[in-house]
Amino acid sequence: MSKELESDRTLVPALIAEIKRIADALEHPTDQTDQNLPDDYNAFVYCADHHSFRTIPNVICPPLHLLKGIDRNRDTLLENTKRFAMGASANNALLWGARGMGKSTLIKAVHAYILNELATDLALVEIHHEDIYALPNLMELLARQSRATILFCDDLSFSQPDKDFKALKSVLEGGLEGRPDNVIFYATSNRRHMMPRKMMDQEQATGIHPTETMDETIALSDRFGLWLGFHPCNQSEYLDMVKGYIDHLSLKAPDNWQDGAKNWSKTRGSRSGRIAWHYVQDLAGSLNVKVRL
To answer: What's the predicted TM-score (pTM) here?
Structure first.
């Protein structure tokens, strides 16, 4: 009996120590992103759950010259990105506005253009909007990288309003450290102030000082140095988009392709670059051709 008691006295402390080790490992996972981003890749997706970067071999986007109807936004974002890639001062950018008008596509196309024209190793890292809470940690990781990096969030919104709002606010030059010199933040949103109307209405209705709540929301958008608004295109711009894709892909379109493009937009109830591309894909399919940008 005494031998069994002695054995228990030996095992229990060891078991407690092992449990503490496992708990500590779960609470403080090993940082897998301490190394530089691989030189043979230029695009990555940040996986917050695993604290790691997933490499993207090929980013799908059209050439920059195919983005029609957004000339001013294209030129402004391109110039801002060139400055950043060359080591000069540049602003964080919020691309907001109409759906399907090329907000996220423009960011990817500008990155591809910079890679080709400036022969730089500029990296593009995407963070999903549901992982916004991890932005401060990600910024810290990117600050230790040797490469200049565009941090990109598509369709920015807040799934955990309090946590996400504070994380983004601290990153956009609101914290003590500010934005790292080698990182710039680009985001897209259908709304200029990013918060869904339902959330804004709720805050206004329940807040002690509704005006202050709205001011805080607007202040978050103000932290982006560039606001680029995207608005629905007219019919002429829409047809120009379609023609650009047809010419680029060398499709043998019928003479009445414009009528087809107009009817296609009517069935969708809108005109945009996305609708134009969907029509061109349908047109290519009717010609037994497979297309991809």
So the answer is: 0.79
